[in-house]
Design a protein that fits this description.
The chain has 256 residues and is mainly beta. It has one domain: Lipoprotein localisation LolA/LolB/LppX (outer membrane lipoprotein receptor (LolB), chain A), CATH 2.50.20.10. The protein is 11% helix and 40% strand. It has three helices and 13 strands. Strands 1, 2, 3, 4, 5, 6, 7, 8, 9, 10, 11, 12 and 13 form a 13-stranded antiparallel β-sheet that branches. A hairpin with an 8-residue loop joins strand 2 and strand 3. The longest helix has 14 residues. It starts with 9 loop residues before the first helix and ends in a 20-residue tail after the last strand.
Length: 256
């Protein structure tokens, strides 16, 4: 099995609202207008709102996108993917891969994670003598991003945890931007990826100005982005069943 390059638009993915796209991302992902106007909102205001939204969230579904660069600034190491995402508290994630530029054979793969140190993977086409369904440690290379980030380090609970970590320090300046016509407020944080990807120098989080929820999460090494997480068509509190997050050899893409 090849590296699956987890489509963890998941996490943040599960937190955003409305159409999202990534800065300097492939053309298929809309590019935000560069407004860069300052606002009177503070990072503390936006983090508090994100905590409030997360507290009210029971579950959600969304269409997610990921853009990663294994080597900062090297476009030849960029991978892009899309997935249908489902999330349920306390810690249940499901991804259904719908696009994978680096390996089209990944399309149709389903990944389920319910906490702990392992996740389930259901391949669209089975491996002779081995079948379709596998349980792997979340540290398995097949489940990591190209930069070695784990699924449990990129989902919604992980992002909320990073925002509230004592080691996180925020730039006092809040920038204004627009993504797909929606106003967003962007904060910059340092120290949030310590122990996850130590090369990351800072993280930029774009909050929807109307709802206050995260709309785009980007990690940088210097001036170069190495991770972009986007979401669209988010539907909160839809009443997902627990069995959606337990895969069997007969599981199929969920119909939403």
């Amino acid at each position: 099995m090849k590296r699956l390059g987890i489509l963890m638009a998941l996490a943040v993915v599960t937190t955003a609202c409305g159409q999202m796209a990534s800065l300097q991302a492939p053309s298929r992902m809309a590019t935000p207008q560069r407004l860069f106007a300052l606002t009177t909102r503070t990072p503390a205001d936006l983090v508090a709102k994100a905590n409030e939204v997360f507290a009210d969230l029971k579950d959600c579904t969304a269409d997610v996108t990921t853009w990663t660069a294994k080597v900062p600034g090297d476009k030849d190491t960029v991978t892009y993917g899309e997935a249908r995402m489902s999330f349920k508290k306390a810690h249940k994630d499901r991804l259904e891969v719908t696009k994978a530029d680096d390996d089209p054979k990944k399309v149709g793969t389903v990944i389920a994670y319910t906490g702990g140190d392992s996740a389930q993977i259901l391949l669209k086409k089975g491996i002779p003598l081995l079948g379709r369904l596998f349980t792997l440690k979340i540290t398995d290379k097949k489940l990591l991003t190209t930069r070695g980030v784990r699924i449990d380090q990129m989902d919604l609970p992980a992002m909320i945890g990073r925002l509230n970590a004592k080691r996180a320090t925020f730039d006092p300046t809040v920038r204004e931007d627009a993504i797909n016509g929606r106003k967003v407020l962007i904060v910059t944080a340092k120290g949030t990826f310590k122990g996850i990807d130590d090369d990351v120098t800072h993280e930029e989080i774009a909050f929807d100005a109307e709802t206050g929820v995260p709309a785009l999460d980007s990690a940088f090494v210097g001036q170069h982005p190495v991770l972009r997480l986007g979401v669209a068509n988010l539907k909160p509190n839809v009443g997902l069943n627990d069995d959606l997050f337990v895969l069997t050899k007969d599981s199929t893409f969920a119909r939403r």
